[in-house]
# Entry
Amino acid sequence: MSRVWEDTIVIALRDAQWLNCRRAGNIPASLIPSGFLKLDGSAESTLGDVIYSAEERYYLIEVKGSRAGISSEWRIKDRLNSKLAYKSLSSLWEQLEVLCSGGRGERAAEDRDTLTRFFLSSFAAHHFAYWDEWENDQDKLGEIVLESYVPACARYFAESRDEGKGFIKPWPGNYFGFLRGMSNDAVASEVVGLSDIFSDRDLKVFISSSDESVQQKLKVGLPLQQFQKYVSYLVEDWNGEDESIFAVVLSNSGSFFKVIGSTKELKLLMDPKSDLYSSPRKKPAPYSSFVSGRGRVFKLGG
# Structure
């Protein structure tokens, strides 16, 4: 199987929105570009169709070419160098682990419930998108999948050789994943396909523990106000240094789609006063300042 470029994942995310809008009847089918998957080679694939989800929900999707790219959240080449979002989430993850392990204090139960709700929101809105590959009868197959950020980091960390504190680690006896279907016929999985966030009305994320002390579920994606709150918290400790990231913020209806290339962009993305995406050359200036200067005068006509 040829390697998938990361920008291909971005294109696929956008295509999924186009297809979603077509099924909803928001725009004529003739205006929608066909979906495609550009590979580093000759192989190609076409995205499947999706069904419209009526509620407007938002996602922060970090793009990786493959699952192995997840480790770049805390390691760059051979050097440990955690990204801002990873640092914030790993610190809170450790706090929640202590509280769930019987941490003492008057507000321990309240703090535990607050953090549990926070991470459930994180599981719902913050994901990796990458090309997942497997072998079937000696043939290599693959598709673009989504995996919630925190569980993905925990699972991949468990497979790495990194050790020490300050990492997002898995919890024995706990499961964090996606839930599909109704109660009696529900199935759980670590990842879902790209189109599932649009097509599966019953898709949820969930937290489950072996002793059933925690059983929480939440629909994938977050309403705008909750999403803004989550993103703001992730970059709360941003100190002005521009940290490179590769992410997409999108809504399930197709009304919003932005490619994010830095921590600064993520910080200012939802700020209505930000002119981040407006060229400084578009800044208005008085018309008189352009007609009162000196120089050669150009006239129309003879």
